[in-house]
């Protein structure tokens, strides 16, 4: 008896932090035949040693906006396109979506991974490319459903390994923790490996099409994380409790002066403050069970990250 024909999947942005994990997850089994599309001069893709059997299509342009005809040629015969494109380039996905429709692609996964971009209060605070543009892309996909292209968008919260020491307020070197208010507001976050597994598993489940999927590895607070870090490092950290509204004011003042160092401050605010979508599991049905995602230990993940 012959094996089923693998589903043909093209990943755009496979050289990025998340894209690499998605690629690794998909090629681990026989279900998918994977190829990669990248820009000719992409620093990420040019620095990654992809498995030699993976076809790589290089676009001779700094953007995807003027490459629709080439993309149509590349995507013809493909079943699925997964976009892990860099956040600042998410607007370019419209060209990729148009090409995917003309090429007969059946399913498009946008680079939505992260915050619940539907939250209007967060959209009004964050730069457009972090929220509004992502939401616009999903709305564009919704407008194309009648053209035969399905979509699935993942709300993951912060990618935990990227965010914890970048904008969530923890510095393992100095043992300082910047805590908003009392640090007890709970929010969702997901690890690289779980996001990648969720994407792979969703491709095998028809009822995941044309919907948002809400997933998490942890539902935590800043105080939860601080307690685990202190236990792992066997040291009392210097917890600096900050008024969230004052932090927001300072960040917006910086942003008004084109100081983009304000963005991590705003990302911490919308994640760790109530009403900005960081706690999406309070109002949405989670998809962890549907996608057969594992239970994870906050302590185990942090132990790997701090080398304990």
From TrEMBL:
Q: Which UniProt keywords apply?
A: NADP, Oxidoreductase
- Pfam families registered for this protein in UniProt: NmrA
Domain of life, per the record? Eukaryota
GO molecular-function annotation terms? oxidoreductase activity
* NmrA-like domain location: 7-143
The record's annotation in Gene3D superfamilies points to: NAD(P)-binding Rossmann-like Domain, UDP-galactose 4-epimerase, domain 1
Protein name from the UniProt record: NmrA-like domain-containing protein
Originating species: Aspergillus puulaauensis
